[in-house]
Design goal:
By secondary structure, the chain is mostly helical. It is built from five helices and no strands.
Length: 125
């Protein structure tokens, strides 16, 4: 039972840290749309909780590596959508959606992978 309490606190702290990254403007510096960064953060945290619920309490290293790879791919997808959207002078709605949902995927993957890593080390101790 103690491990679940530690795990719950660590997931809550990670979620607060990622929301804090939105508040200080880090997501915009990383490539999120300034207007949509809050919704991308909240959606990413919500979807991340679903992913965490599926893989915890004992994630394997393979799952953690897969989450990190998917997180990097989501950030690349978001950056590609942002460039295409900017080149089209904000006319390409599809590129804007790719940008937004790619960033949602990035926050989801980041939240899930950091939580899975913390679960791995909490269970080890």
């Amino acid at each position: 039972m103690k491990a679940y309490i530690k795990l719950g606190f660590s997931v809550a702290i990670i979620a607060l840290a990622l929301f804090g990254a939105h508040i200080i403007g880090f997501w915009v510096q990383l490539g999120a749309h300034p207007f949509w960064s809050q919704s991308a953060t909240l959606l990413g945290l919500g979807f991340g909780l679903i992913v965490i619920g599926l893989i915890l309490p004992r994630p394997s290293w393979g799952v953690i590596i897969l989450l990190l790879i998917l997180t990097a791919l989501a950030l690349q997808t978001s950056s590609s959508g942002k460039e295409t959207f900017a080149i089209s002078y904000a006319e390409n709605r599809y590129a804007g959606q790719i940008w937004h949902f790619g960033f949602v995927g990035f926050v989801t993957g980041l939240f899930a992978s950091i939580s899975a890593l913390s679960a791995k080390f909490i269970n080890r101790a």
